[in-house]
Predict the 3D structure of the following.
Amino acid sequence: MGMPIVTARKLDRRAANLARRKPAARSVRKDTPVERLRVHHRMEALLCLRDRGPMSQIELCKALGRSTTTMSKVVTELEALGWVAVAGSARPREPGRPRTVLRLNPSACETLCLSLEPGLVRSAVVGLDLVARDAREDQLALSDDTPPAILRRLTDWICTRLAELARKRCRPAAVVLVMPGMTDTKLRQIRVSYQLGWRDLPLADHIEAKIGLPVIAHNNTRAMAFAEFRHKHLDADQPMLFVQAKYGVGASMLNGITPSPHGHYGVSELGHLRMGENRFADRVPTNGTLVGVLREPYLRDVLGCPDMKIQIVAEMERRANGKDQVAVKLLDQTIANLALCLAVAINLQNPSIVVLGGIYAGLSDATLDRLLAEIARNVPDELMQPVRLSRTALGPAGAIQGAAIVGFDRLLRQPDTYRAVEAT
C-alpha cells in the first residue's frame, strides 16, 4: 500500500486552517484550596530549611510531619524555582545509604529591608537565610515636612537604591520598611508615628505604584522581637516581652516567629503612659510621660553629652561610678522609671523572659541586677518568679533581620511568588 500523496494544495489548506485557529490560552492556576495548600507546603519547607539548616528530604518530612510523596513534589518544585539545591550527601544516623542534603539558595529570593529613624535610614538586602548583605546607613530627612514631600523623598531614595542594586544584578522581590509607630492591619499605612511625626501616611500604596514591587510596612519593635525570639531559639512555652527605647519606648509580646495575619497586634507604646519622675524638670522639661524621661535625647540633655558616638547609657553609668552627682541621680531615676515601665508590661502580659533593646541593651550586669530588684517591688511574686531579664544580642541589625522575617512571611504566602513553578 503506497504512502498518501500530499499535494501543495493540501499543505496550503492545512496552513490556512492552523492560522484560523485561536491561540491556546495560557493556563492560569486558580486560587483554589489545593493551590493554597501547595503554597503552604512550599513556604513551610523553605522556613524549616532556613531555621533548622540543611537537611535531607527524609529529615524534612519528619520535621514537618509530611509524607514523602508530598515532600518530593514540594522539593521538586523548589528545585525548579532555584530556591533549593542538593548540596552533597550525608550519612544518616540510622543504618542506611547516604542521603542527599537540601540547602537553601539564599540569593534566589531577596528582600530590600529598611529601618527608618528620624534623619536616618538603615538598609540591607536580605536573602532566604536572613543574612544581611550590602548593608549601609544613609542620612535622610523623614520628618518635619508635609506628607507628600516625605513620601516623594522616601520613594526617590528607594528607587535610587533599587537602581544601584540592579547594576549589581540584584533584584529584590519586595521592599519591607520598619519604623517606630503603629500600622494598619494590612501593613499598608502608618496610622501614627510620634517619633517621625507621621499620621495616616499611605506608605505602601504610594511606593508600590512607583517601584512595581510589593511593599510592607511594619513596627520596628515587633520586627526586632521576631529576630530576637529566633536568635534565642525560644518556643511557644517561653513567651518573650521585647522592650526597646531610643526615640520612644515600644514593646512587643511574642510566643513565636510567625507574624500574625494582622501584623501589629501585640505592640504597644509603653512610653506614653502618664507617669515618670523627672528630677531635672528645671533643666530639661518633659510632658509627664515615661518616654520623656527614658528616651535618648533626654538623657543626653541632662548629662550635656551631644556626641552621638558616645553610648549614652554606658556614659551615664561611667559617670555615676565616678561619683558624678548628676549622673548618680539620673541613673537612680532611670532605673526607677524603667522598672515601672517593665512592671506594668509584666503585670499585663506575664512573660517568661524580658529582653531589653535600643539604648538599654548596653546596661551593665550590676545595673541590670538593680533593675530586676526594682521591678520585683512592683510585681506579684507569682508573676515575677519565672521572669528572666536579658539584653538583646542583635542590636540595630535586629530591625533589618526582623523586617526580612515579616517580609518573607508575607511574600512566601503569595501564589505569585512561585509563578516560575506554576508556568512549568
User: Anything to note?
Assistant: The two ends are 43 Å apart (CA to CA). The longest strand covers residues 132-139. Residues 4 and 72 are 48 Å apart (CA to CA).
